Amino acid sequence: MNGIRAVSTQELQQRLDRDSGLHLWNVQTNQYFTGELIPGSRRVPLDTVEHDTKNVSKNAEIVTYCGGPNCGQSTEAARKLMDLGYTNVRVFKEGLEGWKAAGNETSRPEPAPAA
């Protein structure tokens, strides 16, 4: 992955259990987003990464993920973050597929109120 470090399902579970201030981002674009998130994560679509990082420290730990191992959006988002100067970025390549295959639950964010 050209210098982009990966995180395993087990390691991600442990990090989330420790509530370590980890930024876990589902980076699927609207075209691919199914409404599912790994609990504790937030949605930061790949095409908005540059805008959604303004209040995030450059040394914050950020893990990106998408639908599964065949989805390249998580790696692309990590590369964008590194290009923006973020130094502690990793990819959860297994994504939602791997998370669910390991027996973990997903969550669905509350829809935004209609304007």
By CATH reckoning, the class would read Alpha Beta
As for the CATH topology, it is Oxidized Rhodanese, domain 1
Order of helices and strands: EHEEHEHEH
Structural class: alpha/beta
Total of DSSP H or I helical runs spanning 4+ residues: 4
Q: What composes the largest sheet? A: 5 strands, parallel
Strand order of the largest sheet: 1-5-4-2-3
Strand content: 5-15%
Termini separation: 41 Å
The overall strand count is 5
Instruction: Indicate the mean pLDDT.
Output: 90
Helix content: 25-40%
Low-confidence stretches: none
CATH superfamily: Rhodanese-like domain
Radius of gyration: 13 Å
Walk me through what this model shows.
- It is a single chain.
- With 115 residues, the chain is an alpha/beta fold.
- It has one domain (5-101): Oxidized Rhodanese, domain 1, CATH 3.40.250.10.
- Helices cover 28% and strands 13% of the residues.
- The protein contains 4 helices and 5 strands.
- The chain has helices at 9-18, 49-52, 73-83, 95-101, and strands at 5-6, 23-26, 42-43, 62-65, 89-91.
- It has a 5-stranded parallel beta sheet, with helices on one face.
- Strand 4, helix 3 and strand 5 form a beta-alpha-beta unit.
- The longest helix is centred in the last third of the chain and has 11 residues, at 73-83.
- The protein is globular.
- 30% of the residues are buried.
